[in-house]
Specification:
Keywords: Cobalamin biosynthesis, Glutamine amidotransferase. Pathway: Cofactor biosynthesis; adenosylcobalamin biosynthesis. InterPro entries: Class_I_gatase-like, CobQ/CobB/MinD/ParA_Nub-bd_dom, CobQ_GATase1, CobQ_N, CobQ_synth, GATase_3, P-loop_NTPase. The chain has 15 helices and 27 strands. With 508 residues, the chain is an alpha/beta fold. Helix 1 runs parallel beside helix 2, helix 1 packs across helix 14 and helix 5 packs parallel to helix 7. The relative contact order is 0.13.
Length: 508
C-alpha cells in the first residue's frame, strides 16, 4: 500500500463529499481517486465510498468480499486496504434485464428491475450504515456517484446520487467530460432537472479532459457561473496513460485503437475477445503496460488473424457469451488459428469440454469448445478468494470470483487450471499483475507464436499503478481549487440559488 514518511499535514479536517458526473465515464472514478490520493498525501485519513455500483469489473478483499474494482483502486489511492463498506451494493448485469445483487461483498439474489424495487429500501439502509461506519473510522469519505444524478426517471429510488446526498447531507461536485462536447449544456441541464432540495447540495463543477487554449474556455466558465450561481472548482487537463481499473466497457471505447499496420517481429500482438458480458477485463491492463506488447479488443474472427495471443476474458454470462462466440464465427476461428490462447475464468470455462449450468443461465449441460480437458459445474455459492501459487518458477498472487467449479482430467498444471499445447486456462484474475510470472508467460507465448519478442526486465506493474495514482493526485493539487474543496468537505455547500427549469435568458 502507499505510504509517504515525509507526508505534509493540513489542518484537521472532517467531513465528506460526493463526486457526481454528467454521464457515465465522465471521470468520477479517477477524480475520486485523485482527491483521495491528494488528501492522503496531506496526512488526512480518507476512504472512498460508492453506495451502489453497476459493474462487471470486481475485486476480492482480503476477507473474501467482492466489491467494485474501481473502489479497490480508490482505496489504494487512499493508502488503505479495501473493504466491503466501500461498495456495499454491487450490481452485476447478466442480461439487459437481470443483475446479480452483491450485498456487503456476498451475492444475495438475481433480480430484474421490478424485483429490485422491492429490495431498494433495504439496500439504501445498508448503504447508509456502511457510510456511517466509514465516517466513524476515517476523517474524510469521498463518495462517488453512479451514472448521472439527473436521471429523473430513477430519482425516486436513487441511493447513489442525490438520494445519498440528501440522506447524508453531502455537498456535491459534478464532473463533466469536455472531450465529448456539450459539457456546458450537461452542467446546466444536470442542475436544472433537479428539484430544489437536491439543487441546494450541488455546489459546483469540475471540467475533465480539457485540451486546448484555456483563454477560449474561460468565457464559458464565467457564463456557467452566472447562469447557475455555482463555482467551477477547476479544469483537469487531458492526461494520457491513466487507465486505472475502469468500471465498465464504455471506457474501452475511448482508448486509442491499436493500429493494424505491421508491427515488426519484436512486437507481441494480443487480441482480447470483447464478449457481450465481459467481466474483469482489467486482467489485461498489465499486458498493455509491457513495452512492445500491443493489446486490442476484438469482436470478429478476422481480427484474430495477426494475433500472437488471444485472450478469452471473464464473463458474467458464460453460456450466453459462448453462444455468441459460435454465432460470430469466433468459436471456429479459435482452434483453427493454432496460435496461443489464454482463457481466464469464464474464458477458461468456454475452452473446456463441458459446462453444466443450472445457476447462471439455467441452460443445463452445454458443450464447450473442447480445447482443454476440463468440465465445469456451476454451484449456487460463489467462490471468492485470494489464492496464491507458482508457475514458470515464479510466485503468483491472484483473486477468484466464479460459480463454475472445474474438474480437470488432463494436461499440464497451470495455476489452478491446465495447459494443453499452446492453450492455457485458469480461474485466477490478476495473475498477470505478477511481474516475474507475466514475463515468463509472455516469453513462452512468443516462442509458441514464433515471435522475436523478449519481455522488458524492468516493468513493475505495482509501481506503475502507484505512479498513475500519484499523477491523479498531482492533477488534483495543480488544477483544482483544493482550499474550496476542503471547505465543502468540512462545512457543506454554501447557500445556493434555485435554478428554475427551462431555458436561461440569452447571454448578450
Amino acid at each position: 500500500m502507499w505510504e509517504d514518511p515525509g507526508v505534509r499535514s493540513v489542518r484537521a479536517v472532517r467531513g465528506a463529499l460526493l463526486v457526481a458526473g454528467t454521464t457515465s465515464d465522465a471521470g468520477k472514478s479517477v477524480v475520486t481517486a485523485g482527491i483521495c490520493r491528494w488528501l492522503a498525501r496531506q496526512g488526512v485519513r480518507v476512504a472512498p465510498f460508492k453506495a451502489q455500483n453497476m459493474s462487471l469489473n470486481s475485486y476480492v478483499t482480503t476477507d473474501g468480499a467482492e466489491i467494485g474494482r474501481a473502489q479497490a483502486m480508490q482505496a489504494q489511492a487512499a493508502g488503505i486496504e479495501p473493504d466491503a463498506d466501500m461498495n456495499p451494493v454491487l450490481l452485476k448485469p447478466g442480461s439487459d434485464r437481470r443483475s446479480q445483487v452483491v450485498l456487503l461483498g456476498r451475492p444475495v439474489a438475481d433480480v430484474d428491475a421490478m424485483e429490485y424495487g422491492r429490495v431498494r429500501d433495504m439496500l439504501r439502509a445498508t448503504a447508509l450504515r456502511s457510510l456511517d461506519r466509514l465516517r466513524s473510522r476515517y476523517d474524510v469519505v469521498i463518495c462517488e456517484g453512479a451514472g448521472s444524478p439527473a436521471e429523473i426517471n430513477l430519482r425516486r429510488g436513487d441511493l447513489a446520487n442525490m438520494g445519498l446526498a440528501r440522506a447524508a447531507g453531502l455537498p456535491v461536485v459534478v464532473v463533466g467530460d469536455i472531450d465529448r462536447g456539450g459539457v456546458f449544456a450537461a452542467f446546466y441541464g444536470t442542475v436544472g432537472l433537479l428539484e430544489a432540495a437536491d439543487q441546494a447540495l450541488v455546489a459546483g463543477f469540475v471540467v475533465n479532459k480539457f485540451r486546448g487554449a484555456p483563454e477560449l474556455l474561460r468565457p464559458g466558465l464565467d457564463q456557467l457561473r452566472g447562469l447557475t450561481g455555482r463555482e467551477v472548482y477547476g479544469v483537469l487537463p487531458w492526461a494520457d496513460g491513466l487507465w486505472l481499473d475502469v468500471e465498465d466497457s464504455l471506457a474501452l471505447d475511448a482508448r486509442p485503437a491499436a493500429t493494424r499496420e505491421p508491427y515488426g517481429r519484436q512486437t507481441l500482438r494480443v487480441a482480447v475477445v470483447r464478449l457481450p458480458r465481459m467481466s474483469n477485463f482489467t486482467d489485461v491492463d498489465a499486458l498493455a503496460a509491457e513495452p512492445g506488447v500491443v493489446v486490442r479488443f476484438v469482436t470478429a474472427a478476422a481480427d484474430l488473424d495477426d494475433a500472437d495471443l488471444v485472450v478469452l476474458p471473464g464473463s458474467r454470462a458464460t453460456v450466453d457469451d459462448l453462444a455468441w462466440l459460435r454465432r460470430t464465427g469466433l468459436a471456429a476461428a479459435l482452434p483453427a488459428r493454432k496460435g496461443p490462447i489464454l482463457g481466464v475464468c469464464g474464458g477458461f470455462q468456454m475452452l473446456g469440454r463441458e459446462i453444466v449450468d443450472e445457476v447462471e443461465s439455467g441452460a443445463g449441460r452445454v458443450d464447450g469448445l473442447g480445447l482443454l480437458p476440463a468440465r465445469f459445474a456451476f454451484a449456487a455459492d460463489k467462490v471468492l478468494g485470494r489464492p496464491s501459487g507458482h508457475a514458470y518458477g515464479e510466485s503468483v498472487s491472484a483473486y477468484e470470483i466464479h460459480h463454475g467449479v472445474a474438474t480437470v482430467d488432463g494436461g499440464e498444471p497451470f495455476l489452478d487450471g491446465c495447459r494443453v499445447a499452446n492453450v492455457w486456462g485458469t480461474t485466477w484474475h490478476g495473475a498477470l499483475e505478477n511481474d516475474g510470472f507475466r514475463r515468463a508467460f509472455l516469453a513462452d507465448v512468443a516462442r509458441e507464436a514464433g515471435r522475436d519478442f523478449t519481455p522488458a526486465p524492468g516493468t513493475d506493474f505495482a509501481r506503475l499503478r502507484e505512479e498513475r495514482l500519484d499523477a491523479l493526485g498531482d492533477l488534483v493539487e495543480r488544477h483544482l481549487d483544493t482550499d474550496a474543496l476542503l471547505r465543502l468537505i468540512e462545512h457543506g455547500p454554501p447557500e445556493l440559488p434555485f435554478l428554475p427549469p427551462g431555458a436561461p435568458d440569452p447571454v448578450p
